[in-house]
UniProtKB/TrEMBL annotation:
Record-given protein name: NAD-dependent protein deacylase
Listed Gene3D superfamilies: SIR2/SIRT2 'Small Domain, TPP-binding domain
Swiss-Prot/TrEMBL domain comment: 2 residues (Tyr-57 and Arg-60) present in a large hydrophobic pocket are probably involved in substrate specificity. They are important for desuccinylation activity, but dispensable for deacetylation activity.
Annotated NAD(+) binding sites: 13-32, 95-98, 180-182, 206-208, 224
Residues that hold Zn(2+) according to the record: C121, C124, C140, C143
Deacetylase sirtuin-type domain location: 1-237
Textual note on the cofactor: Binds 1 zinc ion per subunit.
Alphabetical list of InterPro entries matching this protein: DHS-like_NAD/FAD-binding_dom, NAD-dep_sirtuin_deacylases, Sirtuin, Sirtuin_cat_small_dom_sf, Sirtuin_class_III, Ssirtuin_cat_dom
Documented EC number(s): 2.3.1.286
Length: 237
């Protein structure tokens, strides 16, 4: 990529938050290596055993609340501000359900897999900020229904959020960057090929080659807290 990109689409995954102490999914010892996602992250699992599913997300929510953003989150927040100051845009699309991008200072974050610090009422659909544990004894603050609150995250078999805005941002980008994602979960895993078919240069920043590594024009391998700030600095951001 030569010159300053004006409109950058950044896709982040669990690897960006790994150095903040939040577990990834598919690395050795990752969440899905230890737990069966079909028993914890599907609507069917929640219907069959809501307490086990809520406990799993309570544990993860406590981890998010205790975690701090790292240098990768901060570099993206800085780059967003610098792009905007130049009249450009950095569109930050994350698969992460934590709020570390926001706490690092990113202003606009599109959470395609939802947000763990929000709860949704299955009765009325209202979404409420939620930092505490969630139980079937909780009432919906909006409609008062009891026992119908779930984490506002996307489970397997459900539609990711904000897909129209994401597609539009991807089509408008002049650079696509994926950071800390294994390329195993669609539709996010398909964005690199979509970008390439639109003629947009692509770069992967990851600890190791992802499942999609051969689809990228460029790659930088290393911990996100080091590789990403260096890459953004090379772009003048
Ligand atoms: P994965 O756990 O599948 O992949 C994380 C990637 O980050 C791997 O390729 C690691 O090599 C890399 N990685 C680990 N530590 C890193 C570091 N310090 N710096 C840079 N890279 C590092 O996580 P995702 O790709 O985000 O969805 O997973 C996608 C979705 O699958 C998640 O959003 C979640 C999960 O199931 C749902 O729950 C719906």
């Amino acid at each position: 990529m030569t010159g300053h990109p004006k409109t950058i689409f950044v896709l982040t995954g669990a690897g960006v938050s790994a150095e903040s102490g939040l577990g990834t999914f598919r690395d050795r010892g990752g969440l899905w290596a230890r737990f069966d996602p079909m028993k914890l992250a599907t609507p069917e699992a929640y219907a069959a055993d809501p307490d086990t599913v809520l406990d799993f997300y309570d544990h993860r929510r406590r981890g998010v609340v205790a975690a701090e953003p790292n240098a990768a989150h901060r570099a993206l927040a800085r780059a967003e501000a610098r792009c905007a100051a130049r009249g450009g845009r950095l569109f930050l699309c994350t698969q992460n359900v934590d709020d570390l991008h926001e706490r690092a200072g990113s202003r606009a974050v599109t959470h395609m897999h939802g947000e763990l610090l929000k709860a949704r009422c299955c009765a009325c659909g209202a979404v409420t900020p939620w930092r505490a544990d969630l139980s079937r004894a909780d009432d919906c603050p909006a409609c008062g229904a009891s026992g119908r609150m779930r984490p506002d995250v996307v489970w397997f078999g459900e539609m990711p959020m904000h897909l129209d805005a994401i597609e539009a941002a991807l089509a408008a980008a002049d650079l696509f960057v994926a950071v800390g994602t294994s390329g195993a979960v669609y539709p996010a895993a398909g964005y690199v090929r979509q970008a390439r078919s639109l003629g947009i240069p692509t770069c992967e920043i990851n600890l190791e080659p992802s499942d999609n590594a051969d689809a990228f024009d460029e790659a930088r391998y290393g911990p996100a807290s080091e590789a990403l700030p260096r890459y953004l600095a090379d772009l003048g951001l």
